[in-house]
Design goal:
The chain is built from 3 helices and 9 strands. About 15% of the residues lie in helices and about 30% in strands. A 4-stranded antiparallel sheet has the order 4-3-6-7, with helices on one face. It has a 3-stranded antiparallel sheet with strand order 1-2-5, with no helix packed on it. The protein is of the alpha+beta class.
Length: about 180
Amino acid sequence: AELTDDCTFDIRFVEIGASTVDVEIVPSNSSTRYYATFMESSILETHTPDEVAAMKISEEGGWQTDWVNDPRIHSGTQTLNSNSDLGIAPFKPQHDYTVFVSAEGERTTQVATKNVTTAEFQKSDMTIQIQVGERTDRSCVLSFTPSVDDELYYIGVVPYELRGYYTTDEEFMQAVVYT
């Protein structure tokens, strides 16, 4: 890619959680439109930041990303959550990730990177109320109400028989969440 925009990006981690990260991105040119994403840091053992950026642009092209209107394209100073703003699946606790930032679409800037290690997992006191609504012989409507609004939680449905393979709720959840 031909680098025609001398915009650089300052990156600072505002909040580092076990499953998400808030990152502040400050471009030197506030009109430069940019794309940010996270990858496991180990990718840098085999690829340069430029190669990673090219792979992500190609991947997004395969998804027919609308570089003009996509909400993941930003300009100006932004504080972005890895999950809710960038669409990255929840991270693993105590794991190394790298944020990659460059001009969107046809990359015209240098790629900026910064590494982060996610925090240790903290056990939650959250409870989740489950309401069973309309049922048919093949489906049902479920409503989930968490006791707190600022924590991520996992929802999944598995056959009842699968639960019988595990002796505790913790063992069962560990198998479901980390497989």
